[in-house]
Amino acid sequence: MVDSITLGESLRRQGVSRRGFMKFCAATASMMALPPSMIPAIAASLEKARRPSVIWLSFQECTGCTESLTRSHAPTVEGLIFDFISLDYHHTLQVASGDQAEAAREAAMHENAGKYIVVVDGSIPGPTSNPGYSTIAGISNYDTLMETVKGAAAVIAVGTCAAYGGLPMANPNPTGAVAIQDVVKDKPIVNVPGCPPIPTVITGVLAHFLTFAKLPELDSLGRPVAFYGQSIHDRCYRRPFYDKGLFAATFDDEGARKGWCLYRLGCKGPMTYNACATAKWNLGTSWPVESGHGCLGCSEPNFWDAGGFYQALSIPTSNVTRTAAAAVAAGAAIGIAAGLANRARKSASKAKHQTVTVDQLGEG
Amino acid sequence: MDFLLWVRGPAFDVAVAIFVIGVVARLLEILLLGRARSYSEPKGSQVGPGFAEIFKRSVPLPDIVRRGAVTLVGGYIFHIGLFVTIFLFVPHIEFINSVFGVRWPGLPNPVVDAVTVITMVALIVLLVHRIIQPVKRMLSGFEDYFTWLVTFLPILTGWLAYHRVVDPYPLILGIHILSVLLLLVVLPFTKLMHTFTVFISRWYNGAIYGRRGVQS
Amino acid sequence: MSSLTLERGLHDFKAAIDAPIASFFSSCVHCGLCAEACLFYVETGDPKYTPIRKLEPLRRVWEQEYTLFGRLKKLVGLSKAVTDEELEEWKELLYASCTMCGRCSQVCPVGNDIAYMVKKAREGMVSSGHAPEPLVGAATRAVKIGSPMGVKWPAVQNQIKHVEADTGLKIPIDVQGAEYMPLLSSMEIINFPEYLGALAKIFKQAGITWTLASKAFEATNAGHQIGSSDIERELVVRVVNEAERLGVKFVIGPECGHAFNAIRWDGPELIGRPYKFRVLHIIELLEQLRTQGRLKVDSKVTERLTFHDPCNMARKSGIVNEQRNLLGMVATNFVDMPDNGIHNWCCGGGGGANSMEEYEHLRLKAFGVKRRQLEAVEPELLVTACANCRLTIEEGLEHYKMEIPIAGLTEMIAEHLKEDESAA
């Protein structure tokens, strides 16, 4: 249900001081690489922001994205902003269920036509797949999605599943899973990938939308450049070790204990674009590499099929040893055949040799 | 990125297959032609001198050092540089280990980086020399220039990838790997085959002259 | 209608290609260093003399016949056939500007034995009718008369008479069961007859039994030079038959480069079996005698001298220290040229090159390397062990007005033998 109080009013009612609010605005500005001069604009916008309707659709997902987002929930400003957004439909967080929940969704769509935001997590079985793989209230995910986005202002695909297909789409893709951007073609889409994404990245995107009434600058994969513009590799605190050629070889060797680079243990940092190395997780507690485990590349498309998590990036995903072995056999067969043919041709030429005599040379 | 996954996956497989089939077939094609039996009295052995020549041939004659300085120096810098960039760079060592199960320590990345630049410079110098030096110019044709390019590209794109000069990284890494696949596919059918046949030709040379008792 | 056709030549090219040649063509990276070792390129600066380029017709036959990829290219019409015009153009490259000296084989970084390939390529040149006229003449005379210079046994007998008169020693002929049977080259018989006398003196002092063969005195193998194994075989067989008939233990190659090569290395392959005798170069024999103490000199050459190592002796047969040890015995002031031993530069006249009058200018130009070697050392005397080298160098020295006398090593040793033991 839409409420008519502004964000500023809401925060004051909850006891958040002006100072606290400004601190959040400053943090948001800095996260989005906006200059300090933008902070008043952010503050003014957010102050006046009315709670937009948000419909959160969950399809073939593990709920990890929701967990990530709400786990960071504490008496923090992010959580409160979330309260301020009118979350009109969310499987995990909503009170209603069954027909009631569906009715609430339809009502929100109708009342806020053209203005509501659709947030999606999880991939969907594609239009040519058996719709029975994933349904809600007896309706296929695909139908639900296409119907719901019709009146949306924008779609935010949260998590790698929604953004690129994620785990369900991984080999052999039994459900024919596709990403949201594969089927939604006529609405602005922001991909916020990660498995799961960092909480403050999600709220940062929302805050951007609330502030500027448009979506942030996106990269070629539809991700906000502010959060996904840098590779893990370029922001990793272990980079000096990579450069010096100091690598951990196993998870408990001397190198690992000394915090050396995890390239050899499969870190996909070089090809992964996300904010983990700077924003980190759990309110800045740590992130995978800092905990001693290589980056999985979870914000990249097809990261599940990108070669083993513990195989270095330079190792191909195909079974080269097996291919090479088979090729040796094939090459040997061809080579022996060619070699024997060569010998036969040479013998034939030798047989055709006519003895050279000086008489013949004399004629020529 | 799908492109990177494709070059690391099915494209890699195909390229390795063509490469291995090509190399094995060509080696057999050469060796099975055989050699006539020798009836003359040998003055020395063949096998030992054959293997020795594989190494000794890497040391040039003094007057050749003078006359062929650009070719020799450029050639050595290129080959040694190539060896360092391929075999002493940790990401490459990881790849080799995944296929052959052997590994060795690598050099620090900045060192490999510097060597890579030197290698590229040597290659460019050799290309210019090939164009302006009369003997090389007369000997060279399409194949020589094409194989130069096919050899230069992996080194250049590898360097560009390492320095993350092109965005996004998966694109330039994919291009680098693709350029390596091109090199693999082209190798067995061009003079690049010398990578493998040089051991055979040097062996034969050492064997022929070793049999004649020539101490080189 | 000539029976020498392109088709015959192509078959002989194909038959000549073996695994070594296939590996050589596969390994060539067009580095051009072979040219830097070839005296013809080095002195003229003309890249057409690049050694590996001399093999281009053979290389194309290899590619088109013996490589899968090459056969494929041929099928789709992407390959260039070898033609008579091309072979005619290549006559100069394979004969006049190549002595098969082997320096290129020594220098090629991938180990290509280019000289070996040149010899094999000549097979096809011969049977396609593209062998040079002077070599055809030499081969014809060798087969029909017994010597490429047309020297017959009576002429030899004449020289023998002079030698016997000069030395007071008898020259044995056709002696059954003699230990050693020396061969002579026409060049020596005509130009340097002192060689035979030297042999007589040395063999007397050393106390070895020896004989000439009247039916097989000629060492020169025009078949080797023209590059036809058939003709080479025909000439070698004459020597083999006589040597085996006389039951000699050793056949001694004379101071002649390719002749030694032909009898020592090629002969057994041509007849398809080992000899019943062994072959030594005269210098090898002299060195053996020296180490056994059977060679004694009582005077020495005191002039500043140097040695020109014939290619077929040093680079192609490994005979390098022998001559230096012998010079150590008979000379007091020996100095090596730069690039000596197996690295020596060819005189420019071997492999049949000398017989091509038409290309004398090229040989004289190529002689520049030899000039520089000599100028670096400034000898008063040049010693060598190959009659052809001697002749070629003499011509070169004369052309450049360099006054350096040349001596054959065997003769030099004979001249300084201890007198009382060499008297009759």
Helical stretch count of chain A?
18
Number of domains of chain B: 1
Radius of gyration of chain A: 29 Å
Structural class, from helix and strand content of chain B?
mainly alpha
The first-level CATH class name of chain B: Mainly Alpha
Number of strands of chain A: 9
- Report the total helices of chain B: 11
Distance, first to last CA of chain B: 55 Å
Shape of chain A: elongated
At the fourth level of CATH, the homologous superfamily of the largest domain in chain A is NADH:ubiquinone oxidoreductase-like, 20kDa subunit
What is the topological layout?
The complex is a heterotrimer of chains A (364), B (216) and C (424).
Chain A: H1 7-13, H2 18-31, H3 39-48, E1 53-58, H4 64-71, H5 77-84, E2 86-89, H6 98-111, E3 116-121, E4 124-125, E5 135-136, E6 139-140, H7 141-149, E7 152-158, H8 159-164, H9 166-169, E8 177-178, H10 180-183, E9 189-192, H11 199-212, H12 225-228, H13 232-235, H14 239-244, H15 254-257, H16 276-279, H17 320-351, H18 358-363
Parallel strand pairs in A: 1-2, 1-3, 3-7, 7-9
Antiparallel strand pairs in A: 4-8, 5-6
Helix pairs in contact in A: 2-3, 3-11
Chain B: H1 2-8, H2 10-31, H3 47-56, H4 62-67, H5 69-87, H6 90-100, H7 109-132, H8 134-139, H9 142-162, H10 169-186, H11 194-211
Chain C: H1 6-16, H2 19-27, H3 33-37, H4 39-44, H5 56-66, H6 68-75, H7 84-96, H8 103-107, H9 114-127, H10 133-144, H11 153-167, E1 180-182, H12 186-191, H13 194-206, H14 222-226, H15 229-246, E2 250-253, H16 257-271, E3 278-281, H17 282-291, E4 305-308, H18 321-330, H19 360-366, H20 368-377, E5 381-384, H21 387-399, E6 406-408, H22 409-415, H23 419-422
Parallel strand pairs in C: 1-2, 2-3, 4-5, 5-6
Helix pairs in contact in C: 1-9, 5-6, 7-9, 11-13, 13-22, 15-16, 17-18
